[in-house]
Design goal:
By secondary structure, the protein is mainly β. It has one helix at residues 94-97, and strands at 2-10, 18-21, 26-33, 39-43, 51-53, 58-60, 65-69, 76-82, 88-91, 104-108, 111-113, 121-129, 132-135, 144-147, 150-155, 170-174, 185-195.
């Protein structure tokens, strides 16, 4: 038996693309508009963004299905590190990291320049605003961030150790074509290529 996941949803008044993390590499997607009729299919090997309109027998080459195979992602990618008192770390997606004020985070993999203390190390989060993590550390005398790096929660505000999790997504993005019509009730079937025993 192959890997399979079934998702249902109702589109908002203006249907938008949707990400689905199904936990495996997707080999086939079938989406069906239950409200208005219509179905779309994507099979591994089709280009990213492609989708077959089953009813019309035509292939769209954009706004279709795109695989999400991020593999192993441990922590949040750092997009900036501002040397200040206190230092501010900007991550790509703070909500994905589960950060909270008082957490201890470990920063690693930063490319840096200049002299001073390395930005790679541990910091306590003082506050969070959007994707900006304000630390409790004066980093004005530290090296300067050039690129890269990851921030990972190491300890919560109560001092409890946080196990490291892979937050990489495996699934697909359904573009505006296979996601269906505005206000439509939808179902999608995701099939993997690996057998489940």
């Amino acid at each position: 038996m192959a890997q399979i996941d079934i998702q249902t949803w109702t589109n908002p008044a203006s249907a938008v693309a949707r990400d689905f993390d199904v936990g495996f590499e997707v080999a086939e997607v079938i989406s069906i508009d239950i409200t208005n009729g219509g179905s779309w299919q994507w099979i591994k090997g089709m280009g990213d963004g492609y989708v077959l309109d089953v009813d019309a027998g035509t292939v769209a080459t954009s706004n279709g299905v795109t695989p999400l195979n991020e593999g192993a992602i441990f922590g949040s990618a750092i997009s900036a590190f501002t040397n200040a008192s206190p230092g501010v770390i900007t991550v790509a997606d703070a909500s994905q990291g589960g950060y909270a004020a008082g957490d201890v985070i470990k920063v690693s993999g930063i490319a840096e320049s200049g002299s001073g203390t390395s930005l790679n190390g541990e910091y306590t989060i003082a506050s969070i605003s959007g994707n900006a993590l304000t630390t409790g550390t004066d980093t004005t005398a530290y090296k300067v961030w050039v690129s890269g790096g990851f921030a990972v929660r190491k300890q919560d505000s109560a001092g409890n150790a946080i196990p490291i999790e892979n937050v990489g997504r495996r699934g697909v993005t359904l573009g505006t074509t296979p996601v269906g019509a505005n206000d439509a009730s939808m179902i999608a079937i995701f099939k993997g290529e690996e057998n489940v025993t």
